[in-house]
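Quick log. Single chain, no ligands specified.
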Amino acid sequence: MNGSRAAALATVAAAVLWGTTGTAAAFAPALGPLLIGAVAMGVGGILQAVVNAGALRRERRALHDRLSVTALGALCVVIYPLAFYTSMHVGGVALGTVVSLASAPLASAVIERVADARPISRRWAASCALGVAGCALLCVSRSAGTGGNVVAGVLLGLAAGAAYAGYSWAMRRLMAHDISRGAAAGAVLGGGGVVLAAGAVAGGASLAAAPPSSWAVLAYLAVVPMFGGYVLFSRGLAGIDATTATTLTLLEPAVATVLAVGVLGETLAASGWTGMALLLVAQVVLVSPRGRPRPTRHDRPTRNDRPLRPATQNDSSLPYPIDH
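-> predicted structure:
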């Protein structure tokens, strides 16, 4: 298995873990979604810093030289869960999820185009279009009829998508400058995690009154999807660009839907199953190996392009004899 294929599979595995968060959070009704997001991503980010403490110490000078990129990534880590969960709260689950998840690959493409002059491939454009359409069908089918402040929900969703793309790009940019995967993840996710965890503790009075089951949910979210998921995601970013990675993680709502139907007993309309099919097709389009291009008329070898037969000393076609 080549490096890019392994990186893509690691990113898909991260999306699968992230897809379990909604079902897990349903078992902690005493906690609000905003608090759950801040605690889970905050603690998960801190764990990234702790596990990668050695790499952070060894590469502190290189990280300091790229402090602006690191700080931008950490800021995006802080913004993402706050904007994402607030978007769903004020605009409805469907609107917040669609805008946040679907706008992330588009934001990544813009960031990499502007910052890195990276061209946009037709393969990615096709995959992204299928993924956005599938995500929209899936999320709308799950939350039909919900109301909310549309304008605020859209703006917050766009902020969440841009923040997700921003910290993904920052981690990838650090790795591209010879900073190890562990140091990049520890600095960006750990920096944002400290701020999120501090804010959750300061404003989370309901944490103290939460039952043990809610604490168990928080522990799972922090360790498995947030910590483990971002370990896999950082492995993915080490082998593929941020635009491809954020497009692959559009699989997350499909996983969340399967679990919601199978575990929580939710129902899914036909449009939702169509959306899931489109998401799976989008993943296949993006990760399928490129076929060898067929030669055109101008690419086919001509008589003059055919390999020469080995020359011998008696070959009269040579303009001079061969000296041994």
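The chain is about 70% helix and 0% strand.
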